[in-house]
Structure formats: C-alpha cells, structure tokens
Amino acid sequence: MSIKDYLSIALKVLSSWQVIVTVVLMIMVMHFANMIINYRKKPKVPKRKKGKEEKTAEPAPVAEEKEEEK
User: Fold this and answer.
1) How far apart are CA 21 and CA 36, in angstroms?
2) Best exposed site among 20, 23, 31, 69 by fewest CB in 10 Å?
3) What is the pTM of this model?
4) How far apart are CA 60 and CA 64, in angstroms?
C-alpha cells in the first residue's frame, strides 16, 4: 500500500461518527475530572443571629487632663 492509501483510510477513520463521539465524550470526562480535582470549598462565613446584636469593642474614652489651679 502506498502513503496515499494510508491517508485515505486514516481520513475515513477520523471522520467516522463513532470516533468523533468518543473523542467528544473523552474531552467531557477529562474536563469533569479536572473540575473535581481542582474544586475548593468556599470558607464558611459565620451567620449573624437576628435577635442579638454583636458587641464590638468601643474605643477608650479620651482622658481629659485636669488643669490644677495656679
């Protein structure tokens, strides 16, 4: 067989619907597996309770200097 015959057979094989469907399915499976491997959960954010207000640290009151009488 010559190279021309090999190329025509290869073209028929690659354009076959079975090969095309198999390649598309393999790409989808690889993409799905990659998503599972690289999945990261978002960090949990603590929920605020509706009935209670959170106490926050208030800044310390400014100390006023008392001037002594002269």
Assistant:
1) 23
2) 69
3) 0.53
4) 12
